[in-house]
Design the sequence.
């Protein structure tokens, strides 16, 4: 209302963030393979927070769009890089579960955003809400000191002593035995990696399928969830009630993530992903044909359950499809392609 926006221009505010996420995911993945996972991860948090502050201060609609692009650069860059970092620290037997549990914190962030919408927005307006979104910058300071670099990345770059020190530190912290039977030996180094490596005969099929998956799941999530409160208002609910409805339905994300984390090591990545994608499709159809009563709430909750569970599995699956030298690049560009779905989704809705 402050900028007198029609629905199309309002949708562009959301899509501007996804333009930034598109660029951020592709760029950060490449940078993480060149300069390290930890460095790029910390940088993306700072960039996102700068974008949030600029959004809060935006004097015009056009400057708000630019600020959302900056925030998108940080957010889009953070997601694939942190998944790559955790996957390279996780034991093989529990790697899938640990990545899905990592992604489950998206649900807690969503719930926190719902609380901001309910309590901060009415009192301090949309600018106050963006100020709250700038807080992750404070966390980046702590991460620089506390978060170790990926030992796989260090070994790939020939920094064997640093990698060995980090592995020993992790073993010591977890109470594991320090069994060093010989001198640490570096893995065969792949040399300088290129984006074109994703399309070599060994990887081009998995690259294509990963891009399709990312596009579809991002289109669904942002195309629907960004507009659930708006859709409910259009069906007759008050704005406050629709925000409460959305907040309660998103709680279902948490069991969605935890059930996927449990199944991903028992069924495997692909069967779990397929089952949750089918559940997403069914729930989306049912929600789209429901009213504003209990049935709509149940279907919205099921949509949260299945869509976010599938997304968690996808994050665990993506880094495992590529070797260390191009792992962040492959996961980052796949996430970047997914952001095209995030750009189109709000307009389609």
Sequence:
């Amino acid at each position: 209302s402050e900028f007198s926006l029609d629905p199309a221009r309002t949708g562009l505010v959301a899509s501007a963030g996804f333009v930034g996420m598109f660029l951020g995911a592709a760029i950060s993945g490449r940078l993480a393979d060149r300069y390290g996972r930890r460095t790029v991860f910390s940088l993306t948090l700072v960039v996102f927070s700068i974008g949030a502050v600029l959004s809060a201060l935006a004097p015009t609609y056009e400057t708000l769009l630019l600020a959302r692009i900056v925030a998108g650069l940080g957010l889009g860059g953070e997601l694939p890089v942190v998944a790559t970092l955790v996957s390279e620290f996780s034991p093989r037997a529990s790697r899938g579960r640990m990545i899905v549990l990592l992604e489950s914190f998206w649900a807690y962030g969503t719930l926190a955003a719902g609380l901001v919408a309910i309590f901060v927005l009415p009192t301090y307006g949309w600018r106050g809400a963006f100020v709250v979104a700038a807080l992750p910058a404070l966390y980046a300071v702590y991460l620089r000191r506390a978060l170790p670099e990926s030992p796989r990345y260090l070994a790939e770059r020939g920094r064997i002593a640093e990698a060995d020190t980090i592995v020993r530190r992790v073993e010591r912290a977890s109470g594991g035995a320090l069994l060093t039977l010989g001198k640490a030996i570096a893995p065969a180094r792949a040399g300088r990696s290129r984006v074109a490596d994703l399309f070599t005969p060994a990887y081009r099929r998995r690259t294509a399928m990963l891009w399709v998956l990312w596009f579809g799941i991002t289109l669904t999530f942002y195309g629907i969830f960004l507009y659930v409160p708006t859709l409910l208002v259009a069906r007759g609910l008050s704005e406050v009630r629709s925000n409460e409805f959305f907040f309660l339905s998103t709680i279902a994300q948490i069991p969605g993530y935890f059930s996927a984390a449990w199944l991903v090591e028992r069924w495997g990545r692909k069967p779990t992903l397929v089952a949750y994608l089918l559940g997403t499709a069914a729930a989306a159809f049912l929600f789209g044909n429901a009213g504003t009563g209990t049935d709509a709430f149940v279907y919205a909750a099921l949509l949260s359950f299945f869509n976010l569970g599938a997304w968690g599995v996808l994050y665990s699956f993506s880094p495992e499809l590529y070797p260390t030298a191009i792992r962040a690049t492959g996961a980052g560009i796949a996430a970047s392609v997914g952001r095209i779905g995030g750009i189109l989704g709000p307009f389609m809705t």
Notes: The mean pLDDT is 84. Residues 42 and 140 are 5 Å apart (CA to CA). Residues 7-35 form the longest helix (29 residues). The radius of gyration is 21 Å.
